[in-house]
Amino acid sequence: MNLPDRILFLDASSLQTHVGIFEEGRWLYHHRSDKEALNSVFQGTRNCLDHTGLKLLDLQGFVFCAGPGSTLGIRITTMAINGWKSFPSHQNIPVFKYYSLEAVACLLIEKGTSTPFTLVSDFRKDLWNHLDVDGDGNLSPIKVIGREEAERISHLLLHIRQRNQWLEPPGNATTIPYSLKDLPEVILKYQLLLRVSSAEAFAP
């Protein structure tokens, strides 16, 4: 997939909000905030534009995380993108989505994590979003599983905390950070982006 230059990136699916501008598989600037998404999405966008010397009119694409993850955070990013897309100057700018668990899985593969492994993230009490990576590095579809099924997993089980309320992870899981430092390169290498007509949240 050929991507445009100067893409605005928004991910508020986890406890931190990530906003950045990237092109050709590298960050021009990446802003991370612990503040609530309602403020950090727009402040982060302003910081990125100020740091790079760009204006909103200079952007040629939008990328957002559709989930799974924080429902409120994802809704704020989709509302922001759809709002910007309503401007006459931005109506023809392409929008792309990716999924948080797929992104983390590919980042882990790229860093040499042994396969097979499973990723889970918080959905609601005793339920988790779930993605398997098999021994050949193939990714399964994302689904929701319960505690009993999660605790039967015998290989490496990794947990991502994506919601503010504390949900106890499966007892056999190791919690890892949601780090996106190397994501632009991985997005290109693993072709994680899907073009969409408008920004909408993932529905399990």
Automatic annotation (TrEMBL):
The name this protein goes by in its record: Gcp-like domain-containing protein
Organism encoding this protein: Candidatus Moanibacter tarae
Lineage: superkingdom: Bacteria
